UniProtKB/TrEMBL annotation:
This protein's name: glucan endo-1,3-beta-D-glucosidase
Lineage: Eukaryota, Viridiplantae, Streptophyta, Embryophyta, Tracheophyta
Subcellular location: Cell membrane
Record's keyword terms, sorted: Cell membrane, Disulfide bond, Glycoprotein, Glycosidase, GPI-anchor, Hydrolase, Lipoprotein, Membrane, Plant defense, Signal
Swiss-Prot/TrEMBL GO biological process terms: carbohydrate metabolic process; defense response
Classification via SUPFAM superfamilies: (Trans)glycosidases
């Protein structure tokens, strides 16, 4: 699957949000040229401006258009208003302008004026107008939400809709099911980090936690990034109200490139890192821990910096481009270049590579491949259909490419080629034809430093051969009961350090943050279940049970 060619119904897409709340922005025609120049074929706009609709004509770009909150009253009260709007804003331009979605209102639960009760009636009238025109099957209708529609989102399995929105949510979900429309949401891990930096690490928000993960205590699901956790919280919330067939679509996500002196994480480097990793995560089609392989459609926010937007400095600086059409930072929308990967070699000379073991079972190999392309944050686009490493189309070949990418990105250490016993190291270059395997020495620069942690987290230190030491005081007895791969920990507040015992394990990172709400460990724990049994742990006031 590529970014620009949605080849099947289960292929994820990356689009971009084209807002126009700024001065000196290029004309719609020039904006479309810029979008085409970066091979972007999915765009969201926030109204139905005629000049913009004309600019997208005959481009093949799929367009999501919007009805602003200010128009909801008129659309909800009279069917004739919706009929007239479709007649004037859809029919003259469709299908030359490829309109595929209409958002009726945006984040209405965040609006200072309560208009949520108007949304479903307005959606119904717009749907009726499309049906009269014979377009209700071709153009889908929904409305966008902030994550604030949930009363709880952590852990993801506790995701639940806020009861105060019940009268709005239930009829909305019924409409979405009846018309096979997605639940649209705007997700911003940036705000999760900004609002709670002691509970959310920067690397976790940026998709950089390739060596650590957060475990959902209730399900055992492993999360290596905030984005997946937020999506799964929505899926759990939908399931809790018996609407588990609705698909989630992310209509905005991004990272600001500039902010005030208090918004230190709003930088071009962080914006580039987040959006690059997001694009790669989406085009790999690995889904989320709860929904592996599930389609995730995402629209990057946004095309331009928009200087007329109110609020903090960061609000005006989410663009990938300046109004003059120069790049704020380099972003490869194909997900194959730039961003995090540097010094990639095609091999040759002395080196080592990680490939699939011929003794691995097909089931174990598939599980390891899914992990590498998902939680392992490997760019697996090269093994997608029509790409350089897709042939031979075998599990062993695809796994070898993914294993080697993870191996090289993690310092080419022995443990980075374990994959639960399904990987093996070779000194023979496995590259072939146009499929070039990265060799020893090429890995993401972001992995050269440890993840940003809370200052009060348990410390860890490197030891030879990739083994790290976790220093704990053991209080009580060791249970003989063995557990599965899932890791659970329950802690209370407080942290001091009385260090009595060193436990050496084959993982790189384990810590408990000062809020006692998250657990982080090396994602390389894959295949190491039953290494230990239950350990009752006390660390100067922190009590818990750590299960391997």
């Amino acid at each position: 699957m590529t970014l620009v060619d949605k080849e099947s119904s289960v292929a994820s897409i990356i689009g971009i949000c084209y807002g126009r709340n700024g001065d000196d922005l290029p004309t719609p025609d020039k904006a479309v040229q810029l979008i085409q120049g970066h091979s972007i074929k999915y765009v969201r706009i926030y109204d139905s401006n005629i000049q913009v609709l004309k600019a997208f004509a005959n481009t093949g770009i799929e367009l999501m258009i919007g009805i602003p909150n200010a128009d909801l009253l008129a659309f909800s009260q009279y069917q004739s208003n919706a009929d007239t709007w479709v007649k004037n804003n859809i029919l003259p331009y469709y299908p030359s302008t490829k309109i595929t979605y209409i958002t009726v209102g945006a984040e209405v639960t965040e609006s200072p004026v309560n208009v949520s009760s108007l949304v479903v009636p307005a959606m119904t009238n717009v749907h009726n107008a499309l049906r009269k025109a014979g377009l209700n099957k071709r153009i889908k209708i929904s409305t966008t939400h902030s994550l604030g529609v949930l009363s709880r989102s952590f852990p993801p399995s506790a995701g639940a809709f806020d009861p105060k929105f019940a009268s709005f949510i239930k009829p909305l979900l019924e409409f979405l099911v009846e018309n096979q429309s997605p639940f649209m949401v705007d997700l911003y891990p940036y705000y999760a980090y900004k609002d709670s930096p002691t509970n959310v690490t920067l690397d976790y928000a940026l998709f950089n936690s390739t060596s650590s993960a957060v475990i959902d205590q209730n399900t055992g699901l492993i999360y290596t990034n905030m984005f997946d956790a937020q999506i799964d919280a929505l899926y759990f919330a939908l399931t809790a109200v018996n609407f588990n067939t609705i698909r989630v679509m992310v209509t905005e996500s991004g990272w600001p490139n500039k902010g005030s002196s208090k918004e230190t994480a709003a930088t071009p480097d962080n914006a580039q890192t987040y959006n690059t990793n997001l694009i790669r995560h989406v085009i790999n089609d690995t889904g989320t821990p709860l929904k592996p392989g599930e389609e995730i459609d995402v629209y990057i926010f946004s095309l331009f910096n928009e200087n007329r937007k109110p609020g903090l400095d960061s609000e005006r600086n989410w663009g990938v481009f300046y109004p003059g059409q120069t790049s704020v930072y380099n972003l490869d929308f194909s997900g194959r270049e730039g961003g995090l990967v540097v010094n990639v070699s095609a091999g040759g000379g002395n080196g080592s590579w990680c490939i699939a073991s011929p003794n691995a079972s097909e089931r174990d190999l598939k599980n390891a491949l899914d992990w590498a392309c998902g939680s392992g944050n490997v760019d697996c686009s090269a093994i997608q259909p029509s790409q350089a490493c897709f042939q031979p189309d075998t599990l062993a070949s695809h796994a070898s490419y993914a294993f080697n990418s993870y191996y090289q990105q993690n310092g080419a250490s022995t443990i980075a080629c374990d994959f639960g016993g399904t990987g093996m190291i070779t000194t023979k270059n496995p590259s072939y034809d146009n499929c070039l395997y990265q060799s020893t020495g090429g890995y993401p620069a972001s992995n050269s430093t440890a993840a940003t942690q809370s200052s009060s987290a348990i410390s860890y230190a490197p030891t030879p051969f990739g083994i790290w030491a976790l220093i704990l005081e053991i209080d009580g007895k060791v249970s003989s009961e063995e557990s599965s791969l899932a890791t659970h920990i329950m802690v209370t507040n407080g942290l001091g350090c009385v260090l009595d015992l060193c436990i050496f394990a084959w993982f790189q990172r384990v810590y408990v943050n000062d809020a006692g709400s998250q657990v982080s460990r090396n994602a390389s724990l894959y295949g190491l279940h039953k290494l230990f049994s239950h350990l009752w742990i006390r660390i100067s006031g922190i009590y818990g049970i750590y299960t391997f």
